[in-house]
Amino acid sequence: xxxxxxxxxxxSVFAFVFGVIVGGNVRFASDxxxxxxxxxxxxxxxxxxxxxxxxxxxxxxDHTVSLFERHGMTNIGYxxxxxxxxxxxxxxxxxxxxxxxxxxxxxxxxxxxxxxxxASEESRRNGRLVQNVESVFLDATYYSKIK
Length: 147
Hints:
Elements: H1 3-19, E1 40-48, H2 53-70, E2 74-79, E3 90-97, H3 100-112, H4 114-123, E4 130-139
Antiparallel strand pairs: 1-3, 1-4, 2-3
């Protein structure tokens, strides 16, 4: 899939996520909240090596999601594309952070966490799962319901 179509796809998923109410993990703007600092969002896309997507899903379900929470990241949603070829090797997810600085600190703490190091090492017994990671930090627009 060309980079142009991958970008269109990623932003389409992003638009979908922001259009859906996600299980109470997101605060909606009110007059009181409008004066508080906005969160920053991070859209991440992982492309796995062929045949490794199920293992990546297991690693996230069994370890990564709870470790993100432990380190101050808010899990908004996890998605797998519906159509081939991306459905065969792509995981897309959205996190929220209190600030860009908080994101940097959370990622550093996460990467140094002994539980993460163990889970990561275990999942790589048969080689690396992920061949490419893309990360985009996003600011909610003033008219977005998700802040």
